[in-house]
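TL;DR need structure tokens for one chain.
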Amino acid sequence: MDTVERVSAAYAWQRALGHETAQNSLCCIVSDPAHPDVWDANHVSGVRASTTAEIEQVLQRADEAFAHCHHRLFVVDPLTPAAFVARLALDDYQELTPTIQLVLVDCSRSF
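>> reply
TL;DR here they are.
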């Protein structure tokens, strides 16, 4: 696992901590029906859907999982396929302020 994958996985894990998660090969659904207005408690992360059929499946799963919410939040990371991001733009999803993750690398270690 490279640095980008590790950082993306760690950020997704931290956001999901304490909430129900349903993971499959296309995405991770994080939900907490007791807190429908808390975005971090109700979101989709780790999206790896790239075909039209896969993207439709993720969007359908989100609608089913978040029936208790008024929002749909998709966390886009550097590994999210461009086709999925384009679909969000096509569907008029609003981009929020990005979160920038910094990584401290110990350059004194030999690899």
